[in-house]
Predict the 3D structure of the following.
Amino acid sequence: MSIYERPESLTPWLQQGPVLMGVANVTPDSFSDGGRFSSQAGGIDYIAAVDHAQRLIHLGAAIVDVGGEASSFFRPGIASVPAEQQIERVVPVIRRLRTGRPVVRANPNLSVLISVDTRSALVAREALLAGADIVNDISAGTHDPAMLATVAELGASIVLMHMRPEQPGQMAPTYTNVVDDVCEYLQDRAMVAKQAGIAAERIIVDPGIGFGKSPADNWKLVAGLSRLVALRYPVLLGVSRKRFLAEVLPADRRSAAPEHWIDRDLATAVVTAMAMAAGVQIHRVHNVELAAQSLAITRRLADERQLSCTS
């Protein structure tokens, strides 16, 4: 068993205000930053990956999300990654981060939380034993029947995300009402997670922006975030650099190429601020610095409005 004692609740972190989850993908094919930490020998440059995670923490991330499998299965050429290979990718990074015991910049009394992005119970178990706190499961525990029991056994938190299968070249699935459908699904999966032994205070829900949704669906979900917040579980929002944001950009700056990341990051920062106002508590982003600035401005304006109302 891991000697690291996971927190019983995420409440102390969420009480600090909106939480930034920085992305540290240790993969060669993630849509935005795939291959960033590949070594010249063809493996993983773990030192570079950990350095990147530490930069995210320095810039304001209270959670680092470490992933060993690209999740954009609707893109041609993206395939699932065997559990053993995911473990080889993520566990060394998690172990190095936990050994360093980084603390949250805004509150040094709190350790940085580590999340593992996986659908596999075997990967989740090894990551949790290495020191992870949260399992970020895009399948909401449906891909691997052992996932929920594993999370419950090890006293971890879990992100339950909504997704629907989407195949390369096919249209996104259709919904009667995408906000209603997503809310109902996440409420059901949260109930199943609790029945499996996961405490309610360890459950986070994610609408799954971009996973089996059209651009119009994604915008409707962003506009309806207050409905998700009303489910009374912390909401994680992952819009960072997603394709639907490109709709608002000039035609020549809509690609996902690195030189256009800043355009999508700016759009992400705007949506992040709006999501904060709607009550979203956890924001999964690539550009932590820009998101942190956006949240700081939003908080300042909210404080000023409150002062104006009470004066």
